[in-house]
Amino acid sequence: MPRLTGLAAGTISQTTGELVARGYVVEARETGKRSGRPRTYLTIAGEGPLVLGAVISTLNTLLITFVDLNGAICSESELPFSGPRSIAELAERVAETIAEAIDASGFPKGRIEHVGIGVPALVDSVDGVVHFMATFEDTPYPFAAVVGDRIGLPVTIEKGTTYKARAEHWHGAAQGHDTFTLINVGLSLDSAAYSDGLPRVGTHGFGPELAHVQTGDIENGEPCYCGSRGCATTYASIYGMVLRGFGAQVSRLDPRNEAEVEALFIKLLDRACEGDSDACAVFDTAGAHLGQVLASYIKIADPGMILIAVPDMRFATVIKKAFSAALNSGILPTILKMTEIKFTRQEKNWHSLGTASLALEKS
Description:
single chain; 363 residues; alpha/beta; Nucleotidyltransferase, domain 5; 3 domains; five-stranded mixed beta sheet; 14 strands; 40% helix; 22% strand; Sugar kinase
């Protein structure tokens, strides 16, 4: 162990002793006969502490997952809560729902080590502050502290794509990669970066916001929910593509209804794969804007690997020509050759894996 970790034997013994005392690991003495001092083996305690991951959906439900230190899901449920009128009310509703879930789970509260919450907002995960949420104006707000005080447990919050990057790093396509960037093509176009095995954030706890890099006409481009125009998310998110692909047919579409938006996106994708020219034009536009924003980002960040998570792998095929053209025209070939760009399908349980990974890392 000292050779593997570079730590002194005494330091390792002290650290493992603390882990044993906290119930994280258990010791097992070697039973076989051999010369010398019997070895002590350490294993993660399956019946030890738990973490709780929670995801706030856009339709006022909370997906709650209890996970053990091995990363195994012990319990999972989705609970509704009443619609809040402010972010302060949202924090209260989330706290109430988590407390109800703990009471109903049968797990002792003292066994829960940490709570990780995914919030669809611009957050400072270090200080636990929500700085911008499209549905509320009363920000910034100390969300993590309020929820933590209400439930009596340590709480960490994170935006959705950052905890998805954790899931990819721990369980998915980014295993073995300590430095990478994730682009999530969802209701909006979101991004997160990992560096040296940890999420990379700036001075104020924010990750890269590639969704709001302006790739269109700033004055006359598509309006964005952030208040600006021409942002990449208005062209390359599934909501933006559905709006352009169906026009007046979806004038009353609720942008928060992820299931409905994704179903329409799949219909649009079906049309493109069948050769429908209007649908193909939507995806050509999306590919061009996605390629443009990635070309700029690669030149600035040198990310090494970029994962593009999509709801359907056919998306990579229908945007390929426009996406590649924008990439190749916007970056030196030498730099592009050194960057691995990989499309990956969004796993249905990434919310659970991501928030649980967040809570595990913070325990």
